[in-house]
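HUMAN: I'm a chemist; might I ask for a sequence paired with its structure tokens?

ASSISTANT:
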Amino acid sequence: MKEIFNGERKFHHDEDRGFYVPNHKVIRNSVYPKNINGTCGFTAACILLDYWNKTLGGFVPEKFLENGNLKTTGFTLQDQLRKYSRYNKSWAKTITDAINSLCRAYNLPGRAYYTLGSIGVREYLNKGRPSIVFGWLNSGVDIKSIDSKPLRHIFHAVTVYGKEDKNYISHYGWKGYEKVVLKRSVIGSVTLFNPDVIIKS
């Protein structure tokens, strides 16, 4: 078991048996705008920024908050992030650009980066930082295709906040699916977020 120091944050984890980022229940209990019309990448970005806002503070503009939680009605953080893109569907670069545009526009701390495959996810988790992964992911949920066959995998974007054995633990972006273990999934791209970097306008 290692003791990890991440700035002021310290947590214990055992990489062989599994672990979560510090304050992982913030992610599990996140209140966020609904995932609609293929907005899963933007939903995952909301959950990620909500985590940092509740953990360190200052990562979400006040206009998108209500009683300390993300607004879910009216013009939301998700709507603002979507304004930085032409499409609802996304991959890691789309979400990275949207997060960085938000940080610049509102003078917020933090910087997003993107990688291909799963590069960086393990390193960031070991530093106590959640990530957003995009790919052909184990659904872990009861979804049926048009011909009523269960779907084992779907193209999706989720917020990863821990490991269980060799699999990542994710918030699936849907109510009731706050802990989905990504077994036998193929990760195509990743958005990483470093809360300690400031983007210069």
